[in-house]
Design brief:
heterodimer, A: alpha+beta, Butyryl-CoA Dehydrogenase, subunit A, domain 3, 9 strands, B: about 260 residues, alpha/beta, Rossmann fold, 2 domains, FAD (chain A), Acyl-CoA dehydrogenase (chain A)
């Protein structure tokens, strides 16, 4: 049966275990995250004590195989899990996205069996935390220009450079760092963050994703054994492959943030009395609600189909770009409309709206900015790249 | 140790329910269904006992079309197997009818311990656990907030909540124990458990399979009434002293609350 929050009844396309996974994560977020998330946001802290519990829940790399300690769920279940995490907070979803899609996935996809056995079970349990270092101070949308440099000396490599805007950087046990060799070839390295020469100062002064740790990574003559290089990560394409995984999760996650804002706005509009009647009875408020409702329904259908295609192994990066671009912009628009409906209350942390809105400003920019995804689609349509 | 956990599937506690057209039932067509919250304490206790004493946990239920969803949820928590009587008529049965059905299932299993929630949150009868113990001629302990099973797994000292205090009693196994909030902290399903539950078996039985007749009821429901609609608030005007005088008058003379 459809509800206003699932108007086209996407529910019927999910398997029993996909629905159960969604509900389990929703329950966890409701009980463990929501009661304290505003305080974490205001104090700029991440609830680290919950990392092992998130691991026990199984959200890290939930679509990877059982033999590495993961739940081997479908990509659709993975998407629904991201939706429920981001219904809580985009910072929480970012934490899980980085661990699963940007650290565990590349070790799984581009690592050898020794590397998988060594790292994946700990990352799945949450006894280890990972970070992903691609973006640099001067190279964001243009990662191919990266300056971080790797020089091979026999059985090891020496890394020098700096990464920026790195989620989990200061709390990570390992960082997956991308660096260029003398020939301009890009490699992926699993860097132990306790290595001499590695430091990760936390980036403060954020007005977005405040309940999430963001750091710089500084590498000064950091020595990494050849055995910690991902052998199958050949060039920038591998790093971009990780991003496609993460963007897939974001396309679903954004729906969760939008639903949180929409539900808040609907409830508020039905109980807030002005001019002796609920404001939800006024046409201007109904127009906003109808627009939010429609855009969420469209985004849900896009996410649903994206998941079906990914489960069949047929999804393209262009489709992932379109869904990430559309759904995040949609969520930000929904958050802004919700803020207007809540009036002054919309800016208070008594309600989740402003937190989601400021978070979504980051989500719109990271993992390929909205504009870069526009250009990816432009190239898909015309065959002509407009990046440079 | 073999532990049987009796579970009832009930409407989610935040469901908005309304009477059926004929006024003698509740319209359940659009509610979400959950495991009765008191039964979650029973499941959790069974799983903790299994971890300590080894053995097997079997979850059983009697219900309609969707009862397997509740069983799958229990299996995802770590319960080993599930067995249900699926019967469309069971919803209209009374506590004794359900207790007889559960007793028939229990006899197939010869469990060392039967755990139930102390009551179901839909009809609040609090009758099934005690009736089940009577039908099986077993010792019972209801409203249990603490239990300590002996090392040999053959008895338990339990802490019952009673009016104004606690009662500590000892029961020998097999026994029926009805769980109350406070006994433990029920776990969450995790994703690996959900995937593992896919491979576990839910045995679906009919009343006839157990030699039971129709699920009848010795109780006839005459009417189901929703709570009275809230009426509009009344604002009392005037200065503080006048408001107090008026409020006392309203509460004492009109509403007769004081």
């Amino acid at each position: 049966m459809s509800s206003i929050y699932d108007y086209f009844n996407t529910e019927t396309f999910f398997t029993e275990e996909e629905r159960m996974a969604r509900d389990a994560v929703r329950d966890f977020v409701g009980a463990k995250i929501l009661p304290n998330i505003e305080a974490h946001f205001e104090n700029r802290t991440f609830p680290h004590e919950l990392t092992p519990e998130l691991g026990a829940l199984g959200v890290f790399g939930s679509n990877l195989p059982e033999k590495y300690g993961c739940a081997a769920m479908s990509n659709t279940a993975y998407g629904l899990i991201m939706q429920e995490l981001e219904r809580g907070d985009s910072g929480l979803r970012s934490f899980v996205s980085v661990q699963g899609a940007l650290v565990m996935y590349p070790i799984f996809a581009y690592g050898n069996e020794d590397q998988r056995q060594r790292w994946l079970p700990g990352l799945a349990q949450g006894s280890l935390v990972g970070a992903f270092g691609l973006t640099e101070p001067d190279f964001g949308s243009n990662p191919a220009g990266m300056k971080t440099h790797a020089v091979q000396n026999g059985d090891s490599w020496t890394l020098n450079g700096a990464k920026m805007w790195i989620t989990n950087g200061s709390v990570a046990d390992i960082a997956l760092v991308w660096a260029k060799d003398d020939e301009g070839k890009i490699h992926g390295f699993i860097v132990d963050t306790k290595s001499p020469g590695f430091s990760a100062p936390e980036m403060k002064r954020k007005m977005s994703l405040r309940a999430s740790v963001t750091s710089e990574l500084v590498l000064q003559d950091v020595v990494v054994p050849e055995t910690d290089r991902l052998p199958e990560a050949k060039g920038l394409k591998a790093a971009l492959g990780c991003l496609t995984q993460a963007r897939y999760g974001i396309a679903w996650g954004a729906v969760g943030a939008a639903l949180a804002c929409f539900e808040t706005a609907v409830e508020y509009s039905k109980t807030r009395i002005q001019f002796d009647r609920p404001i939800g009875g006024f046409q201007l408020v109904q127009a906003k609600l109808a627009e939010m409702h429609t855009e969420i329904a469209k985004a849900q259908l896009l996410a649903l189909r994206l998941g079906q295609l990914k489960d069949r192994g047929e999804v393209t990066f262009g489709q992932v770009s379109m869904a990430k671009r559309n759904n995040v912009a949609m969520a930000l628009d929904v958050a802004r409309s919700a803020r207007e409906i809540l009036g002054a209350n919309g800016i208070s942390t008594e309600y989740p709206i402003m937190r989601h809105m400021t978070n979504l400003e980051s989500v719109k920019t990271y993992e390929g900015t909205h504009d870069i995804h526009t250009l990816i689609l432009g190239q898909e349509i015309t065959g002509i790249p407009a990046f440079t | 140790m073999k532990i049987l956990v009796c579970v009832k599937q009930v409407p989610a506690t935040d469901s908005r329910i309304k009477p059926t057209g004929d006024g003698v039932g509740v319209d359940l067509s659009s509610v979400d269904w959950i495991i009765n919250p008191y039964d979650e304490f029973a499941i959790e206790e069974a799983l903790q006992l299994k971890a300590k004493h080894d053995g097997e946990v079997v979850v059983v239920s009697i219900g309609g079309d969707k009862v397997e969803d509740a069983m799958r949820s229990a299996l995802a928590l770590g319960v080993d197997t599930a067995e249900v009587i699926k019967d469309a008529g069971s919803a209209a049965s009374d506590s004794l009818g359900i207790a007889k059905g559960l007793a028939a299932i229990a006899k197939r299993h010869n469990p060392d311990l039967i755990l139930c929630g102390k009551q179901a949150v839909d009809d609040d009868q609090m009758a099934v656990p005690a009736m089940l113990a009577e039908l099986l001629d077993l010792p019972q302990a209801t409203v249990v907030v603490g239990m300590e099973v002996a090392e040999d797994g053959k008895s338990a000292k339990v802490d019952r909540e009673i009016e104004g205090g606690h009662e500590k009693i000892e029961v020998t196994f097999p026994a029926v124990i009805a769980t109350q909030k406070g006994l433990n902290e029920p776990r969450y399903a995790n994703l690996k458990g959900i995937m593992a539950a896919k491979k576990k078996k839910i045995e679906v039985l009919s009343a006839a399979d157990l030699g039971l007749g129709e699920f009848g009821s010795k109780v006839e429901v005459l009417a189901v009434n929703p709570p009275a609609e809230k009426t509009g608030a009344r604002m009392i005007e005037g200065d503080a002293a006048a408001q107090v005088t008026e409020l006392i008058k309203v509460l004492h003379d009109e509403e007769k609350i004081i």
